[in-house]
Fold this protein.
Amino acid sequence: MVSRVIPVDPFDLVIFGGTGDLAIGKILPALFRRWRAGQIPEDARVIGAARADLDDDSYRALVAGALAPEVGAGGDLDGFLGILEYRRIDVGEAAGWPDLAARLAGSGDRVQAFYFSVAPGLYGALAERLQAHGLAGAGTRVVVEKPFGSDLASARTLNRDLAAHFDEGQIYRIDHYLGKETVQNLMAVRFGNMLFEPLWNSQYVDHIQITVAETVGVGGRGAYYDGAGAMRDMVQNHLMQLLCLIAMEPPARFAPDELRDEKLKVIRALDPVLPHHIVRGQYEQEGDGYRAAVGNPRSRTESYIALKTHISNWRWAGTPFYLRTGKRLVARSSVINVMFKDAPHSIFGAEAGRHANVLSIRLQPNEGITLKVTIKEPGPGGMRLVDVPLDMSFAEALAAEDHDRPDAYERLIMDVIRGNQTLFMRGDEVEAAWAWTDPIIAGWEARGDVPKPYDNGSTGPGDAELLMQRDGRRWQGIKP
Ligand code: NDP
Ligand code: BG6
């Protein structure tokens, strides 16, 4: 496949929290891969900033160590390290800022972006400092991470703090799922084909299942996770975005506000979730369960959630959406299953069997699409029907070069530099998602809800199966 890498314009990117887990584990490797692909110009500058007592050389050494696994695949590491600098800055203190401002002064119309890779509690102070040091001009862009707040009130506060210094068009709120190639493919599948869209409504779709299953646990993020849980960590953002892309009306153009307006309408049309339509779970295993991982023997935080919701609009009224996500499940598998209704009448009689079509969109791993279709079972013995998969793997079908398939952070950071907000969340969208999530969490708290235990390596708590069975349905299997 022919390379389509188009270099971006020269830029300055300051990463506050440049020594942290996200910067070292995701942002800098992503930048290195874009450098290696030839997308980052040699006069770009990437400045890490944090409180640690480092200088340019020791920061480069730190980053070089972290990039060692990447370098195995080749690439000009020294060249990349050459565009890196370090500034010692404490967001809460005045020192270091004048030096940073001087370094960035006189850049003309170069893109200047500030990545807030620090705790959200520092966003307001950071925005104020940028303003105070003349670094919040009209062309400045700021990048903020999820979690964007922990409820509607805190999200509003963050939005207000940022809005005091930046226009909405300057704020890039990351949900890294939107940067995944296969998530963008949801839109290509829906709106690039005539085949699916006419059937994409409650007349033909029985229900939709969205599964994001992980095998990993909470890793080293126990303290954060135990305060968040699967609802805040995954459902309010990643699963919500998937739901929006599957359910939204076609935007007139693939452009930031057109797309985000349509997503917002979906979120605002979501019904409140009834308490008996939610199952919360917590994985357990002798000595290695969730509670041990987070160091909280009485934790009531969920590491698994399954729920049923409805979208009250003309397209989807009557079609339930089932969402589930969890840690330490049997396999890593993110997949959306569009479960079509049975054909209205079988001309082959009851003995031939009835089969409904299923469109499975696999987001990760083994990205691709499978359409389950019904055919005649070969051989004599009358007309018996069987399901067979029409299976397409993106990797096999496209055989693209690595640099043509950037990972989520590569794509999103380059979009920041290009000034394209299409794959970033708008402030009102995040607030609407919290407005739907808050009453669900408040309900658990009021009832003192305790998550159901499930085995490490299983498909989740048995009650999640019951949620489906009560509706005469069942989950599709969680397969790698
Ligand atoms: P870490 O705790 O690993 O890193 C925090 C960084 O901020 C460090 O570089 C730290 O360096 C710096 N820092 C802390 N306080 C200050 C301060 N007062 N002034 C300047 N720098 C400061 O956090 P993560 O990297 O994991 O997370 C960063 C953000 O990204 C958080 O909002 C998190 O929720 C979010 N996020 C993280 C993900 C991940 O994979 N880690 C995934 C998704 C979102 P020093 O102590 O030297 O100042
Ligand atoms: C993060 C969550 O946003 O997404 C993690 O905080 C989760 O808990 C991760 O593991 C999943 O991302 P991915 O890209 O591995 O599916």
Q: What stands out?
A: The chain has a mean pLDDT of 94. Residues 222-247 form the longest helix (26 residues). The first strand starts at residue 11 and ends at 16. DSSP finds 14 helices and 15 strands in the chain.
